[in-house]
Amino acid sequence: MALEIIESCVNCYACEPLCPNKAIYQASPHFLIDPDKCTECIGDFEDAQCASICPIEGAILDEVGTPLNPIGSLTGIPLELLAQYQAAVEATYQAALEAKTG
Amino acid sequence: MELPVFNSAPEASASGGCASHSCGSTDDQLGHLPEHIRAKVHNHPCYSEQAHHYFARMHVAVAPACNIQCHYCNRKYDCSNESRPGVVSEVLTPDQAVKKVMAVAANIPQMTVLGIAGPGDPLANPERTFATFRELSEKAPDIKLCVSTNGLALPESVEELSKHNIDHVTITINCVDPDVGAKIYPWIFWNNKRIMGREGAAILIEQQQKGLEMLTARGILVKVNSVMIPGVNDEHLVEVSKVVKSKGAFLHNVMPLIAEPEHGTFYGLMGQPSPSHEDLQKLQDACAGDMNMMRHCRQCRADAVGLLGEDRGQEFTMDKIEEMDIDYAAAMVKRAEVHAQIARELEEKDKARAAVAQVKAQLVSIEGGKPKAETRPVLMAVATKGGGVINEHFGHAREFLVYEASANGVRFISHRKTIPYCEGGDTCGDGESALDVTIRELAGCEVVLCSKVGYEPWGPLEAAGMQPNGEHAMEPIEEAILAVYEEMRAAGKLEPRADAAQKVA
Ligand code: SF4
Ligand code: SF4
Ligand code: SF4
Predict the structure, then answer these.
(1) Residue whose C-alpha is closest to residue B58's, from B100, B3, B16
(2) Fewer Cβ atoms within 10 Å of its own Cβ: the N or the C terminal residue of chain A?
(3) Residue A4 confidence (pLDDT)
(4) Once rounded to an integer, what is the mean pLDDT over residues B96-113?
(5) A40 CA → ligand 1 middle, Å
(6) Beta strand pairing status for B378-382 and B399-406?
(7) How far apart are the C-alpha atoms of B152 and B201, rounded to whole Å?
């Protein structure tokens, strides 16, 4: 039983000092959880500490890959708006890439 | 009716007991503070409108974690406590931060203040924050330390804070009512749990107020920042101002919300409007009746280096610092000299100001009986490089200082950032020229004072109802403004207007 931090982690350091098992460590390109040490906080806390402070929706997954903080659950931004925003960011990024290569 | 007396604030006489030079200086907005607090903030570039032209400050980012979420912050990028989303700064280890501060303090001897602010909340990362402060108090005891926080972890940190010789704390307080808070803070992390909505906001408010009381009880200076969010907390901030004042905060700084869709914040994406300059000023005025307001906050970057408004961060990246060869002891001696020199200069300016005020007061008493017509207040924009004089070309200005002249004298209102007309090229972004941006930013001003202004911008400025004026180059700002105001009065341009609306081209 262990949680996992994925690439959307922004390296904010918030989770690392909270882990009762010192399972979280700084790594490149982002923080990671040692699956051998993580207990999902059972016996220590009611809620998984890392997932309770992480500000990034979708950055921490459970064993079967389900995000503990699904999209929209923390910021309250409607999914539709969020999708539009992500598409716009992606478009800007692609345009910048093209301008560079082309 | 009140007669115009140079630089005198109307409340000055009522408060009693203050020397003419102290209550007269409306530009540093410290006139009404008790003497011991004024002395403490006298050379703090973030608090004194006077001092920020002379002294330098820097911020370092060592503590990126945060224990709450604000709707104006997108933690995917980063953000200071001060609602500046989308600005990415370099996160340093405490060791690197100390190295950087020492290098900057050796190279910029005007340096007096180190701040630890965003990204994140310094007290959500107490180990990193306090490690930095501890080492610095030892190595550079002449540098003042300050910390900005959202306040959630403040009560538990007060003990530790008071150990580290930290005499300035800034708390960002946007509300004292949990129902308002629920619209600003979607969650907080508290006692090992994430707490959503109103319940979380109520805890945050309680902790902020408790922290404020504990700090002031220990004699630590507390400034309160508030972000003005139209339709959410704008009216409520008048109440906030009263409450924080009654608990001993010495300054209340109301800042405008910055919310653009491209920042990806809740407010940005939901189309939450930012306040107009006019509404911001109205609110600042409403709060100023209750306590001192600081108007010149430029919402500087978390890791800014240099004099306020002038960012020299690029000269002090970590790899450049590694190569520097620094004599720290000599640097500290040099700083002491420079600080003393600046203090002398400020004192002389104070004296000169007092002398002018006296002459003006005499003139007024001579003219005494002659009633003058009621005059309306006028906003004027000033281009300056610092030093309190008009010394910047219109086309080179990156920002303008806006002052209000009225029958009661001159007071500082705000900074308006812009794109230098000379560098702007034809357009920037949406087909808006740099000149258009400046004109939009200066909306409401009727006079633009600068050391020089070109032929080209002259017409559009006039068409927008702003009179360019280059006749007062190198003159002290307040005196020039009063002179122009007097000319306008003599020309009959200051009759009170029924409709306050500005001319728009
Ligand atoms: S779930 Fe608990 S034990 Fe596992 S990494 Fe997170 S904080 Fe540590
Ligand atoms: S709290 Fe979330 S975003 Fe921050 S370091 Fe941990 S996993 Fe990454
Ligand atoms: S306290 Fe600062 S870092 Fe934390 S969410 Fe608010 S603005 Fe962002």
Answers:
(1) B100
(2) C
(3) 96
(4) 80
(5) 5
(6) antiparallel
(7) 10
What are the Cα distances from residue B147, in Å, to A68, B62, B68, B72, B501? 33, 12, 17, 20, 41
Q: Tell which one of A5, A45, A49, A62 to mutate to probe ligand 1, the residue whose CB is within 8 A of the most ligand atoms.
A: A49
Q: Range with the lowest mean pLDDT among B7-21, B152-166, B189-203, B262-276? A: B7-21
- The type of residue at B176 is V
Q: Which two tokens stand for residue B486?
A: 């007097």
Q: Which fold has domain B373-504?
A: Nucleotidyltransferase; domain 5 (3.30.420)
pLDDT surpassing 60 at residue B16: no
Instruction: Among 3.20.20.70, 1.10.10.10, 2.40.160.10, 3.30.200.20, name the CATH number for the domain at B43-328.
Output: 3.20.20.70
Q: Which residues of B touch A46 (CB under 8 A)?
A: 192-193
Distances (CA, A) of A87 to A73, B270, B429: 20, 16, 20
Question: A1-70 maps to which CATH number?
Answer: 3.30.70.20
Q: Cα separation of A67 and A58, whole Å? A: 5
One-letter-per-residue 3-state SS of B134-166: HHHHHHCCCCEEEEEECCCCHHHHHHHHHHCCC
- pTM of structure: 0.73
Q: Residue B65: its chain A contacts at CB < 8 A?
A: 12-14, 17, 53
- pLDDT tens, residue by residue, B30-71: 455 566 666 666 555 555 555 555 566 677 778 788 999 999
